[in-house]
Design a protein that fits this description.
Elements: E1 11-25, E2 31-39, E3 42-48, H1 52-56, E4 64-74, E5 78-87, H2 107-118, H3 124-134, H4 141-146, H5 160-176, H6 184-193, H7 198-201, E6 202-204, E7 209-211, H8 213-217, H9 220-233, H10 240-252, H11 268-292, H12 321-324
Parallel strand pairs: 3-5
Antiparallel strand pairs: 1-2, 1-4, 2-3, 4-5, 6-7
Helix pairs in contact: 2-5, 3-6, 5-6, 5-11, 6-10, 6-11, 9-10, 10-11
């Protein structure tokens, strides 16, 4: 059964992915474990009350485990698995693709659309900048193609950065023709590159996404700014005003000092990218919640990213599993 298909009171014996591990302490001083276990449709809390010391060396985020226990959906405490036993899964007993989320469309289609979008940038210096970072022969392209867009809230899976950067870029491309005074080439270049710092800020071992030391010490905005600035400086004759415009988009795309941007958007292009990026992230949260939605349900649980539960009038929309798992 998939996580979204679990029902109150059901007994489970299946392989799930460990996403989080937290050690707690009972009143008598003995330790217990709180886990987040999941598959490609969502995650569920789990509790282990006994045998903690023996398990701590084997249970880590990103590790698949065979879970034997009982699932309950408590009206006050929410859904949880009470674990009776955890075991190492036998080789060949599960499909890793069942545990990993992914974009709803094949990555080849995403890449083709990115190439088409890059082709709309006519400024030769900006086109060269894009080619050096996301061009098919760029050293950074394989990492950009495979990187996640986040750790938790939106597109937190392989190819998520490509998917998110593409959708933000496509929206900026369309809207730049609607609002007057926007420099299309600057806005689209900034949109495609706004999250490029995540190449260094996040790492994934295939089953787990975590922040790197550089991501925690410097932050993805600084890392992205530094990467793009280096690329700009390697292009002879790159106009200073174009460089300033693109770098400002990267520095300001979180929109406020409270959200991590060292400056707030001060240009039309930066303002457009910020709001479209924010919209893309919030709509990405709806995609995540819809995948977790049990059949027949229309409301998700409360979600911290949205500040509310999400409503789906027609219920969950089932996507093609082959497309979701496309590599």
């Amino acid at each position: 059964m998939l996580v979204r298909e679990l029902t109150d009171g059901c007994e489970i014996d299946q392989v799930l992915l460990v996403r989080e591990v937290e050690v707690g302490q009972k009143r008598d001083g003995r330790e217990f474990l709180k886990l987040a276990l999941g598959d490609r449709t969502g995650s569920v809390a789990a509790t282990i009350w006994d045998g903690v010391a023996e398990l701590l060396d084997h249970i880590r985020p990103g590790v698949p485990v065979r879970v034997i226990g009982r699932y309950a959906d408590h009206p006050r405490y929410g859904a949880e698995i009470t674990v009776r036993a955890l075991r190492r899964p036998a080789d060949g007993s599960f499909d890793p693709a069942d545990l990993l989320d992914g974009p709803p469309r094949p990555v080849a289609a995403l890449e083709a659309e990115l190439r088409e979008l890059v082709g709309t940038v006519r400024d030769p210096f900006l086109a060269e900048l894009l080619d050096r970072i996301v061009g098919p022969a760029a050293p950074t392209w394989p990492a950009f193609r495979d990187a996640p867009a986040a750790k938790v809230y939106h597109q937190a899976y392989r190819h998520g950065l490509l998917e998110h950067s593409l959708t933000v870029g496509q929206a900026v491309h369309a809207m730049s023709a609607t609002f007057p005074g926007i420099d299309h080439d600057v806005a689209v270049t900034g949109a495609i590159l706004h999250d490029v710092g995540k190449l260094e800020a996040y790492r994934s071992d295939g089953l787990r996404i975590h922040m790197t030391d550089a991501g925690r010490l410097q932050g993805e905005i600084v890392l992205g700014y530094t990467r793009v600035r280096r690329a700009i400086e390697s292009i002879e004759g790159f106009p200073a005003d174009r460089a300033e415009a693109v770098l400002h988009i990267i520095l300001s795309h979180h929109g406020s000092l409270q959200h991590g941007s060292p400056v707030v958007p001060c240009t039309r292009e930066a303002t457009l990218v910020h709001f479209v990026d924010n919209l893309g992230g919030r709509l990405g949260s709806f995609d995540r919640l819809e995948k977790e939605l049990p059949d027949g349900e229309r409301w998700s649980a409360y979600d911290r990213a949205l500040g509310t539960g999400a409503y789906f009038p027609a219920g969950r929309v089932v996507t093609d599993p082959a497309a979701t798992r496309a590599a």
